[in-house]
Design a protein that fits this description.
The protein is of the alpha/beta class. Helix content is 37%, strand content 18%. The strands form 5 sheets. Strands 17, 18, 19, 20, 21, 22, 23, 24, 25, 26, 27, 28 and 29 form a 13-stranded mixed sheet that branches. Strand 8 and strand 9 form a beta hairpin. One of its GO terms (biological process) is peptidoglycan turnover.
Length: 881
C-alpha cells in the first residue's frame, strides 16, 4: 500500500521495480498495489504536473450529477493505474447518520443512505471501468461514531443491528448486490449494542464472517483496518491482532508503515498456525479470494509495463477541464440574503476586503504541504479525540496563513483591490481583528468543521454580531461565511445571511471560490443528503430494491408486518388486527393483481408491502404498508413509485385510484389523519388530493338489543319502496347493471363474488312502485368467504365479539324518485333484519359513500372508520412510466 506522496514518475518507477522483483522471484500473479485516492483532502498521490485534483465525495454529490461522479472516478483510476496502482481503497460508503459531529466529514457523500449508494456505486463503476479493483469502506460504518472518552480511546458504534441495517448498511448492501465490489475494508471501531459487544470490528467474526459474509452475502476480499493503530497495538499487540483478524475472516491484514511490525505480523501468523488457532484451509480460502481479485485487475504484461508519464501527459488537459467543471458545479451558495455575490456588484475597487481564516491542518493533496511542513509552524490547540481518530496517520502540523495565503493573493488579483488577511484561533476576536473589521467594507470568514472546532463557530458569530452593530450605526459592513470543509457549520443558522460551501480547501477548490466571489460563474451546487434542495437529484436517487410479492415466500412476512402495524395503529384502525396476507389475494378473475414488497432477503422479513389492482381501465393502490419501525427511509416511496409505474403501463389505463373496497382493508387515506402527514406524503408522491370521496365503515355493536327507529318502516312504505332478496347470478343482470352505473368497477366485482356465494351471501334490491331499481346492498352471513377480504367483518384475536354480519357496498341511484337517504335506510334495515335472523351479534355496514351515513346514525349506527378515496388521471405520473 502506498502511503507517501511521491511524484508520479517516482511512483511509477517504484511500482515497476517492485513488480519486476516479484516476477523474478516467481510470484504467480503481480503484487497488489493499493492506494488511498479519495480526492478532496485524502490523496496519497499528488503531482500538480500530472495528477489532477478533484472534489471530495461530498463535493461531488453537491455537484448533483451521478454521471459526473462516474467520470471523476474513472479519471482518478486511470491516473493511478498509469503509475501501476491496481487497487483503490474506495469508494467511501459510510452514511453520516450524525453528520454534524463525525470526523469522516466530506470524505462521505452525506446522510442519505440511498444517495450514498447512488454516488458510491457510480464511483465504483468508474474505478472498475478504468480497470482497477475497488474496496468499499469503512464497514460496518464510520458514519455515526460515539467518542465516549473510554480508556481505549476508540470510537464506538452504539446503533443496533436493525438500525444499522436501515441506514448504515444500505450502501454496503447495494454495492455488494452489483457484483462489482472486489474488496471490503473492515474498520477498527468498537460496537456496543444489545446483540453485539465488539472491541474492534475487523477482529470480530460476528462482524466479518456473520454480518459481512453470511448476512450481506459478500464473497470478495475482506481487508482489516491498519493493525498499527496505537490503541490496537497497545491493547492486543500486532501478533495477536493478526491472528484475530484472520480468525475473524479477514483475507488481507493491513500494516502500513514499519517493516519490523510487518515481520512481527508474519511471525504471529506462523504462531497462529502452529497453535492451531488458524487452519491451512482458512489461509487457502483467503489466498483464493486474493488471487481471484488480482486476476480481475492486473496481469504481468500490465504490471511490468505501466503507461506512466506518457499516458498522464496525454490525458492531463482533459482531466484538468473535468476537475474545473466539477469544482465549479460543486460550489454551493446556501444563502445570499443580501445579494452580496458577486462582490464586484456592490464593492468599489478602493474598498478593503478582509479575509479571516482559521489555523487548520494542510491537506495532503496540497502542493503547499511540503513547504508548510518544512517551514516554521505552530499548533493551534491539542488535537481532540476526533482529530486523533480522523487524522491518526497524518502529522499534527497546523498552519493558517500557509493554507489560505494563495486564496488571499488570488482574490486580491481577481478583484484588483486591496485585501487584508489574518488568521484567528481559539483565543477569539482580538484587538487586531477588531481594527481590521473596522477598516473593511466586507469580511469573509472561512470555517473548517466548526461543529467540532467550536471556537470557529463562536468567532464567526461574534464577528456577525459586530457587523450587525456597525451597520446599525451607518457603516458599510457586510459578512460572507465560507465553510471550506463540512457544509453543516452554518447550514441551519440563518443568522449568517451569506453562506458558501466549498467542501474542501485545496488550491483547486479555493480557485473555484474566487471565481464565485468575483462573479465569473453562477454556482449551482446543493447541500448533500437530507439538506439537498435539488429536485433533479432527488428524483434520480436510488430507491429500495422492490420485488414482486411471492405468496409462498412472503405471506408469513406480510402477516408479521400486518401485526406490527396493528400494534402501532390508532384505535380506529384496529381492523388491521384481522387483516391477513390472504386478504389481498382476490378470487375475482376480472381484477388483475400485482403486489410488491421491500424485504430483507436474509431474514425474509417484509419492510413494506403494496397491493395494486387493475380492472376496467382503473389502476388501484389497494394497500400500502411500511413497518412502523422503518419509516422515513424511503421504503414507502420506493414501493409507490414501482406500483404506479406498473399501473401506468397497463393498456387502456384511464385513471388511478387510491383506496379500494374489494378487498376492503384500505378504503383510502384514513380521515383521522389529523396532522395531515399521510396526505402530505401522498401529495409529495404526485397525488392531487383536492377532491376526495369520503367513505365510512359503520357498526351496530349489540344487535340483539337493537330496534328500528319508530316510524321508519312506515315512511319507507309511504314512499312506495319495496325490497326483495336474491341469490345467485341468475336474474341478477339488473343488479349488476345498476352497480356498474353507480359504483367503482371493483365494487361490481364484489357484487359478482357475493352473488356466486349463494349459501352465505345475497343481494337486497330496493324498488319503486313501477319495479324500477332504486338501490342494492350485499348481505353476508357470519363466516362468509367475503369476510376474508373485508377485515371489519372478522373478530379480532382475543376478543369475544360474537358472530359479525355484513351489510356491504350499499349502492343507491342518486336520481331516484324517492329520497336517496330513505332508500339507504331501507337497505340498511333489511340488512340488519337478515343479520339478526342469521344470529349475528354485531353488524358492520361497509363502504358508505360521502355524507350519506348521516341518516344511518339516526338508526343507531356508529362510525367505525372513515376514509378518503382519491382518483387522478395517470398523466400525474408520466415520469414513472
Amino acid at each position: 500500500m502506498l502511503t507517501a506522496t511521491p511524484a508520479a514518475h517516482q511512483t511509477a518507477r517504484l511500482v515497476q521495480e517492485l513488480q519486476t522483483i516479484a516476477h523474478q522471484a516467481g510470484h504467480p500473479q503481480p503484487l497488489l498495489i493499493a492506494l488511498d485516492q479519495e480526492n478532496g483532502g485524502v490523496n496519497s498521490l499528488y503531482d500538480e504536473d500530472y495528477i489532477c485534483q478533484f472534489p471530495s465525495a461530498m463535493g461531488q454529490a453537491a455537484a448533483g450529477s451521478v454521471d459526473l461522479t462516474y467520470k471523476v472516478a474513472k479519471a482518478t483510476a486511470t491516473e493511478v493505474s498509469a503509475v501501476g496502482v491496481n487497487l483503490i481503497l474506495g469508494p467511501v460508503l459510510d452514511v453520516l447518520s450524525n453528520a454534524r459531529y463525525q470526523p469522516l466529514g466530506v470524505r462521505a457523500t452525506g446522510d442519505d443512505p440511498q444517495e450514498v449508494s447512488q454516488y458510491g456505486i457510480a464511483a465504483m463503476n468508474g474505478y472498475k471501468d478504468a480497470g482497477i479493483a475497488t474496496c468499499g469502506k469503512h464497514f460496518p460504518s464510520y458514519g455515526n461514531l460515539d467518542f465516549l472518552g473510554s480508556s481505549l480511546d476508540i470510537p464506538i458504534i452504539t446503533q443496533t443491528l436493525e438500525e444499522l441495517s436501515l441506514s448504515a448498511l444500505v450502501p454496503f448492501r447495494n454495492a455488494i448486490a452489483t457484483g462489482r465490489l472486489d474488496a471490503m475494508f473492515v474498520g477498527g471501531c468498537g460496537i456496543t449494542n444489545p446483540s453485539m459487544n465488539v472491541n474492534h470490528a475487523c477482529l470480530s467474526d460476528q462482524v466479518v464472517d456473520d454480518l459481512l459474509r453470511n448476512e450481506l452475502g459478500f464473497q470478495g476480499v475482506a481487508i482489516s483496518e491498519c493493525l498499527e493503530m496505537e490503541v490496537l497495538r497497545n491493547e492486543i499487540g500486532v501478533k495477536t491482532g493478526t491472528v484475530m483478524a484472520v480468525e475473524a475472516g479477514c483475507d488481507l491484514v493491513l500494516l502500513c508503515r514499519a517493516y519490523d511490525v510487518q515481520l512481527e505480523a508474519i511471525s504471529g501468523l506462523k504462531l497462529g498456525l502452529e497453535n492451531e488457532l488458524i487452519t491451512k484451509d482458512r489461509i487457502y480460502t483467503s489466498l483464493r479470494r486474493v488471487l481471484r481479485m488480482k486476476k480481475s485487475c492486473t496481469s504481468w504484461p500490465k504490471a511490468l509495463n505501466p503507461p506512466g508519464i506518457s499516458l498522464l501527459s496525454k490525458i492531463h488537459a482533459s482531466h484538468l477541464a473535468l476537475s474545473s467543471k466539477t469544482y465549479d458545479d460543486s460550489i454551493s451558495v446556501v444563502r445570499d440574503n443580501e445579494n452580496l455575490l458577486p462582490l464586484s456588484g456592490w464593492m468599489h475597487q478602493e474598498e478593503e476586503l478582509l479575509l479571516l481564516t482559521p489555523l487548520v491542518k494542510p491537506l495532503p493533496a496540497s502542493s503547499m504541504t511540503k513547504a508548510i511542513l518544512e517551514g516554521k509552524n505552530r499548533s493551534d490547540a491539542a488535537p481532540t479525540t476526533h482529530d486523533k481518530w480522523a487524522h491518526r496517520d497524518r502529522g499534527a502540523i497546523m498552519s493558517g496563513e500557509g493554507v489560505f495565503r494563495e486564496l488571499g493573493r488570488s482574490l486580491a488579483r481577481s478583484r484588483h483591490g486591496k485585501l487584508l488577511h489574518t488568521s484567528y484561533t481559539a483565543n477569539g476576536v482580538r484587538p487586531v481583528h477588531e481594527n481590521l473589521i473596522n477598516r473593511a467594507s466586507c469580511i469573509i470568514i472561512a470555517t473548517a468543521d466548526a461543529n467540532r472546532n467550536l471556537y470557529q463557530a463562536g468567532f464567526a458569530k461574534h464577528v456577525a454580531m459586530m457587523c450587525s452593530m456597525l451597520k446599525a450605526s451607518g457603516q458599510k459592513k457586510s459578512l460572507v461565511v465560507v465553510a471550506v470543509s463540512s457544509p453543516y457549520d452554518f447550514a441551519m443558522d440563518k443568522s449568517i445571511g451569506t453562506y458558501i460551501c466549498t467542501f474542501d480547501f485545496t488550491e483547486t477548490a479555493m480557485a473555484a471560490l474566487v471565481r464565485v466571489l468575483c462573479g465569473k460563474f453562477k454556482p449551482q451546487g446543493t447541500l448533500p443528503g437530507t439538506l439537498r434542495k435539488s429536485r433533479k437529484v432527488l428524483k434520480s436517487r436510488q430507491h429500495w430494491l422492490v420485488e414482486s410479492y411471492d405468496r409462498e415466500r412472503d405471506s408469513k412476512g406480510l402477516d408479521d408486518l400486518l401485526q406490527a402495524l396493528a400494534r402501532a395503529s390508532a384505535p380506529t384502525q384496529q381492523f388491521l388486527r384481522t387483516t391477513r396476507a390472504h386478504t389481498f389475494e382476490l378470487p375475482s378473475r376480472p381484477i388483475e393483481e400485482s403486489h410488491y414488497v421491500v424485504r430483507n432477503s436474509s431474514t425474509q422479513a417484509l419492510y413494506g408491502f403494496c397491493a395494486t389492482y387493475y380492472v376496467n381501465g382503473t389502476g388501484i393502490i389497494g394497500a400500502l404498508f411500511v413497518d412502523p419501525t422503518k419509516r422515513n427511509v424511503s421504503i414507502g416511496r420506493s414501493l409507490q413509485r414501482r406500483a404506479l409505474r406498473g399501473l401506468a403501463q397497463r393498456p387502456g389505463i384511464k385513471k388511478m385510484q387510491l383506496g379500494m373496497s374489494f378487498p376492503g382493508a384500505f378504503l383510502g387515506i384514513p380521515a383521522d389523519d389529523s396532522a395531515g402527514g399521510l396526505k402530505q406524503w401522498f401529495a409529495n408522491g404526485g397525488w392531487d388530493l383536492q377532491f376526495p370521496r369520503r367513505l365510512a365503515n359503520l357498526t351496530i355493536g349489540a344487535l340483539g338489543a337493537w330496534a328500528a327507529p319508530e316510524g321508519l318502516l312506515q315512511r319507507i312504505q309511504r314512499a312506495g319502496i319495496s325490497f326483495d332478496l336474491i341469490h345467485g347470478l341468475d336474474g341478477a343482470d339488473s343488479v349488476l347493471a345498476h352497480v356498474k352505473a353507480h359504483a367503482n368497477p371493483e365494487v361490481l366485482e364484489l357484487y359478482r363474488a357475493a352473488l356466486q356465494d349463494t349459501k352465505m351471501c345475497g343481494v337486497v334490491r330496493a324498488k319503486n312502485h313501477t319495479a324500477s331499481l332504486l338501490g342494492t346492498v350485499i348481505i353476508c352471513r357470519p363466516g362468509s368467504r367475503l369476510a376474508r377480504f373485508v377485515p371489519p367483518l372478522q373478530s379480532a384475536p382475543g376478543r369475544d365479539e360474537g358472530p359479525i354480519g355484513g351489510i356491504l357496498a350499499p349502492t343507491v341511484a342518486p336520481s331516484s324518485a324517492a329520497q336517496p337517504g330513505l332508500v339507504l335506510q331501507g337497505l340498511a334495515l333489511m340488512g340488519l333484519r337478515q343479520n339478526k335472523a342469521h344470529q349475528s351479534q354485531r353488524s358492520v355496514l361497509s363502504w358508505v359513500q360521502d355524507e350519506a351515513y348521516e341518516p344511518l346514525l339516526a338508526m343507531g349506527f356508529e362510525v367505525l372508520q372513515a376514509f378518503e378515496e382519491f382518483t387522478n388521471p395517470p398523466d400525474n405520473w408520466q415520469d414513472v412510466a
